[in-house]
Amino acid sequence: MPDYLVQYGSSAFVGRFAADNDLSRGASVVIRTARGLEIGTMLCEARAATSFDSGGELIREVQLPDEADRLLANRLAGEILDAANLTDQAVTFLDCEVTLDRRGAILHALPWGECQLDDHLAALSDRFDLAVRLFDVSQGKPPIDPPEPKTTCEKPGCGTAEGGCTSCSTGACGTGSSCSKGKVESAAQLTSYFADLRQKMEEQVAVRTPLN
């Protein structure tokens, strides 16, 4: 059973997925990742030396019902993003992704000061009847835990289960008191952050291994 590299998510994550049959570059596939059911794009067969971890389960090539589900998920993501940004907290929500089965949503957040988002995320979860969680873009890594209702933190030992994100001591949570540790504190730093991010992406493209 060959392994393939599949790109998925609006942040273009790449993972290794096993498939029962040969798949061509550019094929759209339905995958189950740690974030939920998603649609990804086939890149190439993964060579033995390719240092990508398993991304989850490759279910099938995309079919017409999957395309319809994607349109509904994207529409719902836009509504959640608009509602999320109706807050006076020190955070900007840059993007939103909704899983193909519309059971979970991932808000791309960039905090620039102290904020407490537990109640805001809980209200969004209740309003849209799905689990809304955060992806702190300043951390640069995809969420690793499956979506759960009203879950707002992804790091072990955060304290979410006991006292909410306000009890977080890891400094890695995108909510609660740790938001004061965000990478961006001003408009100038925000501009600098995205300039540095673009430069890193361009450097990665320059050294990318050619795909056959």
Can you give me a brief rundown of this structure?
With 212 residues, this protein is an alpha+beta fold. The chain contains 4 helices and 8 strands.
Write structural notes for this entry.
The chain is an alpha+beta fold. The protein has 2 domains: 3-62, no CATH class; 71-188, GMP Synthetase, Chain A, domain 3, CATH 3.30.300. Helices cover 26% and strands 26% of the residues. The protein has 4 helices and 8 strands. It has helices at residues 64-84, 118-128, 160-163, 187-206, and strands at 3-8, 13-18, 28-33, 36-45, 57-61, 91-98, 104-111, 131-136. The protein has a 5-stranded antiparallel sheet, with no helix packed on it. It has a 3-stranded mixed sheet with strand order 6-7-8.
Task: Give the overall form.
Answer: globular
The CATH architecture name of the largest domain reads 2-Layer Sandwich
Report the β-strand fraction as a percent range: 25-35%
Mean of residue pLDDT values: 75
Distance between the termini: 19 Å
Biggest sheet, in brief? 5 strands, antiparallel
Q: What's the count of strands? A: 8
- Content-based structural category: alpha+beta
Q: CATH topology of the largest domain, which one?
A: GMP Synthetase, Chain A, domain 3
Radius of gyration from the alpha-carbon trace, in angstroms = 18 Å
Count of domains: 2
What are the defining features of this structure?
alpha+beta, GMP Synthetase, Chain A, domain 3, 3-stranded mixed sheet, 8 strands, 212 residues, single chain, globular
List the helices and strands and how they pair.
Layout (H helix, E strand, L loop, with lengths): L2 E6 L4 E6 L9 E6 L2 E10 L11 E5 L2 H21 L6 E8 L5 E8 L6 H11 L2 E6 L23 H4 L23 H20 L6
Parallel strand pairs: 7-8
Antiparallel strand pairs: 1-2, 1-4, 3-4, 3-5, 6-7
